[in-house]
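Revision sheet: C-alpha cells.
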Amino acid sequence: MMTPSERTKSFNKARTAQLKALLKNKQGLWDSLLRLLELAEENTQTILQGQPTDWQQWHYGKLQGQINQVMLELGERSAAQIKAFSQTTWVAGINLIDAPLKAGGVTVNAMTQLLQHRQLVAIDNFMVDRIKDVLSGKADYIRSQLGLVMMGAQDSETAKKAIAESLGEKKMWRAKAIVNTELSRLYNTASHMRMNEIGDAVPGMEKEWRLGRRKEHRVSHLAANNTRAAANEPFTIGGIKMMHPHDPKAPAKETVNCSCFTVPVMKHWEVDPNLTVKT
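Predicted:
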C-alpha cells in the first residue's frame, strides 16, 4: 500500500497529464472549424468563378440560393464537430478528477451520472447557436457583397476577395473566442460536478484556482491564482462568488476568453471505506 506522499506524487503526475486534454480539444475543434471554413470558401469561389464575366448576366436569386446552401452545410457540419468535441471535453473534465484519484490508489465505487447531464446539453447547444450566429453574419455579408456587384457599385473581383477574407481565420476571432470560452466552461463544469458527486467518498479533496496560458489576465483572476476552496464552496473573484472558472452563473466579464481552470488537490487521503476502494 502506498504512503500518503507516494499517493500525492502519483496523483499530481496523473493530474498534469489530464490537463493536456482541454488544450488538445480546443485546438482540435478550432482546426476542424477552420478546415470547414476553407471548404466553404473554396465552394463559394467555385460558384462565383462559374458566373458569366459580365456581371449584368448574373442571376441573383439562383446565385443567392447556391451561396445559402454552402453556408447551411457549413453550419450543420460545424454543429456536428462542436457536439463531438463537447462530449470529449466533458468526459475529460470528469477524468481530471477520476484519473488522479485512481493513480493515487483510490477508486470510487459509484459510477458517475454526469455523462449525459443537462448542463452538457445546454452548454453544447449554446455554443452551436453562437457559432451559427457568427456564420449567419458571414452569410449576410456575402449577400451584401453580391448585392453591390449586382447594382454595379462594386466589381466582381473585389467582391470575391472580400468574401474570401471574411471566411479567413483573421476574421473569425469571435468564433475562436466562443470555442475557447465554451469548451473551458464544459471542462470546468464537468470537473466541478464530478468533485461534488464524490465529495462524501473523498472528503480530503479540494479545488485550486489556476491561471491558464495567456499573456494577460484579469486582475481578479491573478489574485485568485493558487487559492483553494472546498469542493462545494465558491471562490470570491472580484467580489463575485464563483464555484469555478467559467461558472455559468458568473457575469460575462469574468468568463469570456478566460483561460483559468481548477485542479483537484488532496488535503488528506482519508476516504469513506463504504464508498471507495483504497489500494
